[in-house]
Design goal:
Helix 1 runs antiparallel to helix 13 and helix 7 crosses helix 8. Helix content is 37%, strand content 25%. The chain is α+β, with helices and mostly antiparallel strands.
């Protein structure tokens, strides 16, 4: 019998409880209140020597439709020799949140903002992360600018960093800019109103196209996982929407990978210890080889990201419907990313999935503590001042950031399941097209195609295997436990 009644379940309260359960402090401590009040009393950009004035450039930002914590803005320039010069302005959070303050201590403990779908639990108070330290449109802000040039082959060179005053001229969103760049939708209103902005974005896109082609040549992995977001009506989740990647998301990803590489190499050249973001060479490469073999492809016994990506590109062309599931399997077999201390003259393990050796996190300081630390290290280097962290302290921070990032993923996964259970409850009894995504001693697991939801087969799963397509009927949902049960 089909259920048509929505279930009343407090998702926000569940998210708050999940944060506490996984070691977060979702409510800010009282000690930060006087520090926050002092910052709000003087919101103008702080003055400091050696800061350039780049507010005259046509900076813009591209982020999610709902993003309020804007960490970076971009600008590009065509050079006479064919290269494209790119500038990334990163919010100078450290200018407002100095080392040793209560705000800093809380951020160091939390290490990351957590996005649960129904509420954001920010690492820093929203008055900062969405206000005074956010690169909001038409607001003067102080930033750390990361500059580099991109040649025809996609090689990044001439990297450097410096401090500057900046002004975001146009806050834009991935969906509308991506559709315009791909010629599947109209220009966003701000782009349509400014030929200069349109030309600026086209130039940025051209630089990003060069960089992605260059990284693929060196073995960067073309992975395509499916991400979803809840559609909220008041405080209730009523639908699950799929978030697709596009040219705009790729543009920002490429720019950030390059910027993070510039920072890492600058530290290396200066002999400065830093925190790097790494994905080690897969320990379960043998299983990746087996997965490829089952699909009729051969991979070498020794890990090779270039040959793995060649296989992925071939599978994407041959079977696009199953490619997100293959991507997810490869990501799980590669293992999670982690933060590590890299000492001067020490080789970084690198980032296997990105095919880069030098990679740190520096471009999202409003939402990630490692980026604040990196910002402080770079500002000290630029000022020729003593480094603010000892190597042992950096190692402790790296371990904490890895631990809390893993906990954040657990919170986000739990909430995705709860949201799906709430959204699907009125549809009990309905049938859905699905793909089998897992078979083990616990049972058989499926992913429905529309909406994109994971669940378990409680009957009719005998004889099915991963990749099989089935029609399933929704039997029950349990938002508290995040369970969604289907029958064939």
């Amino acid at each position: 019998m089909q259920s048509s009644q929505p279930i009343h379940f407090n998702l926000v309260a569940a998210a708050h409880a999940a944060m506490i359960e996984h070691g977060f402090q979702p409510d800010f401590p009282p000690a930060i209140a006087p520090e926050l009040a002092a910052i709000q009393a003087h919101p103008e950009p702080p003055a400091a020597p050696g800061i350039q004035d780049l507010r005259g450039l046509l900076w813009s930002s591209i982020d999610n439709d709902t993003s309020k914590d804007l960490d970076q803005i971009e600008w590009a320039e065509q050079l006479p020799d064919g290269r494209i010069r790119v500038l990334i302005g990163v919010a100078d959070v450290d200018a407002r949140v100095p080392l040793g303050t209560a705000l800093d201590a809380h951020a160091r403990s939390e290490t990351t903002s957590v996005y649960t779908g129904v509420r954001v639990f920010p690492m820093l108070p929203s008055e900062l992360s969405e206000g005074i330290t956010s690169l909001n449109e038409n607001q003067d802000r102080v930033a750390l600018v990361i500059e580099y040039s991109v040649d025809q082959a996609g090689t990044v060179n001439d990297g450097k960093a410096y401090r500057a005053l900046v002004r975001n001229r146009a806050q834009l969103a991935y969906n509308s800019v991506g559709a315009w760049l791909e010629e599947t939708g109209p220009a966003p209103a701000k782009v349509a109103a400014s030929a200069d902005l349109a030309a600026q974005l086209k130039l940025q896109d051209a630089a990003a196209r060069r960089m992605v082609d260059g990284r693929f040549q060196h073995g960067a992995l073309d992975l395509e996982t499916i991400e979803t977001r809840p559609v909220m009506l008041a405080d209730q989740a009523v639908e699950i929407a799929r978030q697709a990647k596009n040219r705009a998301t790729s543009l920002i990803e490429e720019f950030m990978v390059a910027a993070n590489g510039v920072i890492a190499r600058t530290f290396e050249d200066a002999g400065v210890a830093s925190i790097r973001r790494i994905v080690r060479t897969p320990k379960r490469w043998d299983r990746i080889v087996e997965v490829a073999q089952a699909l009729g492809a051969t991979l070498p016994a020794v890990p090779d990201s270039k040959l793995l990506n060649d296989f992925l590109l071939a599978q994407k062309a041959k079977d696009p419907d199953h490619f997100p599931d293959l991507s997810l399997a490869v990501i799980k077999l590669m293992g999670p990313g982690e933060y590590v201390l890299v000492k001067p003259n020490e080789t970084s393990p690198g980032h296997f999935g990105l095919a880069v050796q030098d990679y740190t996190h520096s471009t999202a300081p409003n939402r990630r503590f490692p980026d604040v630390v990196t910002q402080r290290l770079m500002k000290a280097l630029l000022a020729k001042a003593p480094q603010p962290y000892a190597e042992g302290d950096l190692n402790t921070i790296a371990l904490r950031c890895t631990f809390m990032e893993d906990n954040a993923r657990k919170v986000e996964r739990e909430m995705q399941k709860r949201i799906a259970a709430v959204v699907l409850h009125p549809r009990i009894g309905q049938s859905f097209r699905a793909i089998v995504t897992g078979v083990n001693h616990y049972g058989t697991f499926v992913r429905t195609l529309d909406p994109h939801v994971d669940g378990m087969l409680v009957s009719g799963g005998k004889g099915l295997d991963v990749g099989d397509r089935v029609t399933v009927k929704l039997v029950s949902t349990d938002p508290q436990r995040g369970f969604i049960d289907f029958a064939v």
